[in-house]
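Q: Hi! Curious about what NADH-quinone oxidoreductase subunit A looks like structurally. Here's the sequence.
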Amino acid sequence: MGHISEFGKILIILLTGILLVTLTLLLSKMLAPKKPTPLKLSSYECGEETSGNSWVQFNSRFYVIALIFLLFDVEMIFIFPWSTVFAQKELLAVSPSWGWLTLTEMFVFVGILLLGLVYVWKRGDLEWIKPEPKLPEVKTAIPASAYDRINQETYKIRPFSVHSSREDVIKESSTSVTGTKPAFKPTFKRVQK
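A: Let's find out. The predicted structure is below.
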């Protein structure tokens, strides 16, 4: 009665896992502060403000490739127990046909997997979407010749030096700059509290 079977050990591990997950969820529910604000309740998009509708259409091919990878990855898990059982000499000593039977079963199993891979490949589900590159067209009052002139202009790049002083940089920048160039001035969006 004091002996626990292998399935009993698995049941104990499953019950312990379920109990730990339930306890941590209940503990976080009881201890977490509950101070919702409109800013906290807004959706978070990797630090960017959300724009547009969240119900946009996207290509599901990425998920199909992930599922195909997962399928083949999980199927490979079944090969490891087979290989350990196939290598047991005691089973082969009992019945010599046991080795040929298990080898044939595994060839059928891997053959079905390869047929599935060929089917998915022929269907084109493994090919990425190859968009056609298009140059952006912007309607602006600035002529294209101005952009061409800026792109064809050569700029002097000074070598990097750790020991350069501020006076050297100011002297060099005053000699190399002939006119005023537009500078990048970042603007930050103020979040209302």
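A: A fun detail: Helices lie at 6-31, 38-41, 61-86, 89-94, 97-123, 144-152, 166-176.
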